[in-house]
Amino acid sequence: MTDPLQRLDDPDRPTYTIGQAAELLGVQVAFLRSLDTAGVVEPARSSGGHRRWSRTQLQLAVRVRTLLDDGHPLASAEVIIGLQDDVTELHARLDRAAPGR
Predict the structure, then answer these.
(1) What would the pLDDT profile of 50-69 be if each residue is shown by its tens digit?
(2) CATH of 13-97, one of 3.20.20.140, 3.30.70.380, 3.30.70.100, 1.10.1660.10
């Protein structure tokens, strides 16, 4: 059996309400709702239907907010983030294939 306290460190655990998430990020609740509506970030839902955000999702929301603040439209921000993630994954693969390169 795993230690239930380990879940506290899980970055993908949907822990934060939309209000908590907005406060942590310094954004409006409407911004987070818009990310959900657009399908950019899809938070989990509680049994009552309320959004629950994980740390991983909050990090993505910050990345989107930064790109929007830099003047990119939402569709471009999604593409940029996807490409950044692809590059990060490719670097990780290269590092695994040729350690110390």
Answers:
(1) 999 999 999 999 999 999 99
(2) 1.10.1660.10
